[in-house]
Design a protein that fits this description.
Rossmann fold; alpha/beta; single chain; 185 residues; 4 helices
C-alpha cells in the first residue's frame, strides 16, 4: 500500500471525526480537550463543555460557546445524563483507568446520546503487537503520558450499553479507530 493511500485513509478518518462533531447539537462534553484543536469543528448552536487534566488552552482557542474546566476523565464532576454527546480524541492512551473513563462517559450521556471517539490503538497480530508494545514504552517515556498500545475499546463500550453505529479502523502499524455510538442503558 502506498504512503499516499495510507495518508489518505487517515485524512478520511479525521474528516469523519470532524463531520461527527459538526452534526451534533445540544450539550456536548469534550474530554481531553488539550489545546482545543477540535473546538472550531462544533456547530455554532452547540453548548460545549471542555475538560482537561490541566489548563493548557490558549486565549485564541477559546470560542464563546465553550465552558472550560480542569478535571479527571476517570471521575467527571458532571451530573448523570447531562450531555447529548460526549467526545474524546486521543484520550484513552493517557488515562490510567480507561475502562473507568468509558464508564464515566456513559454515565453523563443522556439515553440515546452519542459517544464519539477517535483513538490510536494496538495493532492486531503477534509481530506488530509486540513491536508496538516496545515502541509504546519509548513513546511513553518521550511524551510522559501517552501509552499508544491501548486495546480497541469497542467491546468495553458494548458492555456499557453503547450501540456502535459506525466504526472505521485505519492503519496497520499504528492504527487509529473512529467510533460513533449511541447510548441505550
Amino acid at each position: 500500500m502506498s504512503l499516499y493511500i495510507r495518508t489518505r485513509k487517515r485524512e478520511v478518518a479525521k474528516e469523519l471525526f470532524r463531520h461527527a462533531l459538526k452534526c451534533r447539537s445540544g450539550k456536548i462534553l469534550e474530554i481531553g480537550v488539550g489545546q482545543g484543536e477540535t473546538l472550531k469543528d462544533y456547530a455554532p448552536t452547540a453548548e460545549v463543555f471542555a475538560i482537561d487534566i490541566r489548563q493548557i488552552w490558549g486565549k485564541r482557542l477559546r470560542p464563546r460557546n465553550v465552558h472550560y474546566s480542569v478535571g479527571l476523565a476517570e471521575s467527571l464532576s458532571f451530573a448523570d445524563s447531562m450531555f447529548s454527546t460526549v467526545v474524546s480524541r486521543f484520550l484513552l492512551c493517557s488515562v490510567h483507568q480507561w475502562a473507568k473513563c468509558l464508564a464515566e462517559m456513559a454515565r453523563v450521556l443522556i439515553p440515546g446520546g452519542h459517544l464519539v471517539i477517535f483513538e490510536h490503538v494496538k495493532p492486531s497480530g503477534l509481530l506488530l503487537s509486540t513491536i508496538h508494545d516496545i515502541y509504546s514504552v519509548v513513546w511513553h517515556d518521550l511524551l510522559g503520558y501517552c501509552r499508544a498500545n491501548q486495546k480497541d475499546p469497542t467491546n468495553e463500550l458494548i458492555k456499557l450499553g453503547i450501540q456502535i453505529e459506525s466504526k472505521l479502523m485505519v492503519g496497520i502499524v499504528n492504527p487509529w479507530v473512529f467510533i460513533d455510538g449511541a447510548y441505550y442503558p
